[in-house]
Amino acid sequence: MIELSNISKYYHPGTVNELCLFRHFNLTIADGDFVSVVGSNGSGKTSLLNIICGSIGVEQGSIRIGGTDITRLPSHKRHRRIGRVFQDPSLGTCPSMTILENLSLADNKGKPYNLGFGINKKRKEAYQEMLHSLNLGLEDKLNVPVGNLSGGQRQALSLLMATMTPIEFLILDEHTAALDPKTAERIMELTGQIVAEKRLTTIMVTHNLRYAVEYGNRMLMMHQGQVILDKSGEEKQALTVNSLLSLFNEISIECGN
Ligand SMILES: Nc1ncnc2c1ncn2[C@@H]1O[C@H](COP(=O)(O)OP(=O)(O)OP(=O)(O)O)[C@@H](O)[C@H]1O
After folding, report:
1. What is the ipTM of this complex?
2. Most buried of 8, 24, 48, 62, CB within 10 angstroms?
3. Which residues form a coiled coil (predicted)?
């Protein structure tokens, strides 16, 4: 379970540019939940993910994972339990290293010598099998630098790398936004498959309302640092793209856009 309690987050505190994004913000995500998060630009979706991952700190409040307070835990220690895939396919992988080297690095996440134990035949075969399941022909490209792959291939690899060690939470930050529609569809199918197989508690930020409606058992809509819609179970299943669009329009009118 992830629990954010009484979170306050300021950007540029004490300056003329001070922005209080979250004020006494609370959110609980249960184990096994697949939560899609939508919201207007600047509503705080990425900041929320950054707060959970520890990339940014908070002025007030606590973040607990499985009952353990991780508010002061540095991000590299949190990443042993959290896998993250970014919008930019180049952020989840090391482009100058081969697919094999990238997989080995991800496989050794959290261990003392990331590449030190080398890659034996058994591991190589296991990686090939994993890559084969992506159905992108990457199993025959183990020695190809990741920088030579397409955005979609890299994003599929990022997803595999983020989830190959026993993580508890998967954080997806608009991970299909930079892909063409067909590739985005494939990556979403793959996401659904991996999340179900590994039973990962997942938070997916997306601007694609159809994905938000079709995937996950809970949906949050954010606006100006607040959750303005929180639907799960049957209520979530009843959501439609049109109903979400209407809500977006209402928010825009409220803001005078
Ligand atoms: N590092 C930062 N320094 C200062 N302000 C920031 C920083 N990161 C985000 N903000 C501000 O916080 C607000 C929320 O930004 P955030 O990126 O979390 O929103 P978002 O919902 O993810 O937006 P988008 O949909 O456009 O990606 C915005 O007003 C943004 O300008």
Report:
1. 0.96
2. 48
3. none
